[in-house]
Amino acid sequence: QEQLVESGGGLALPGESLRLSCQASGFTFSRHAMSWVRQAPGKGLEWVSGLYSDGSDQFYRDSVKGRFTISRDNAKNTVYLQMNSLIFEDTAVYYCHLEGTDYWGQGTQVTVSS
């Protein structure tokens, strides 16, 4: 059974950094593209970043380009999201998503507040 478990969220001041992790199990992780999606309070789901199965290409929404970095370690079945220079608008629940499926993690809360 496919499972995605996020971790690494928390409270950060503007300008600080957080690193999210998503541990995958129950499927052949190295064969699948992965993405991060977020949901801010009172808003819909918003795609943030994604990468191919081998990590060769990474994609970002404009508002996080230059600040966020997505990566993966296929040996550890884990995808990461390094978030630098956090701003208030990054406050959201962040979800790990197995591309092309309905499999999502439970989400991890990121709150940027002074």
Distance between the termini: 40 Å
Number of helical segments with 4 or more residues: 0
Shape: globular
Q: Please, what is the average pLDDT?
A: 96
Q: Helix proportion of residues, in percent? A: under 10%
Adjacency order of strands in the biggest sheet: 2-10-9-4-5-6
Features:
globular; six-stranded mixed sheet; 49% strand; single chain; 10 strands; mainly beta; four-stranded antiparallel sheet; 114 residues
Q: What would you note in describing this structure?
A:
The protein has 114 residues and is mainly beta. It is 0% helix and 49% strand. The strands form 2 sheets. Strands 2-10-9-4-5-6 form a 6-stranded mixed beta sheet, with no helix packed on it. A 4-stranded antiparallel beta sheet has the order 1-3-8-7, with no helix packed on it. A hairpin with a 6-residue loop joins β5 and β6. It is globular, with a radius of gyration of 13 Å.
Itemize the secondary structure elements and their pairings.
Layout: E1 3-7, E2 10-12, E3 18-25, E4 34-39, E5 45-51, E6 58-60, E7 68-73, E8 78-83, E9 92-98, E10 108-112
Parallel strand pairs: 2-10
Antiparallel strand pairs: 1-3, 3-8, 4-5, 4-9, 5-6, 7-8, 9-10
Q: What's the short version?
A:
This protein has strands at 3-7, 10-12, 18-25, 34-39, 45-51, 58-60, 68-73, 78-83, 92-98, 108-112.
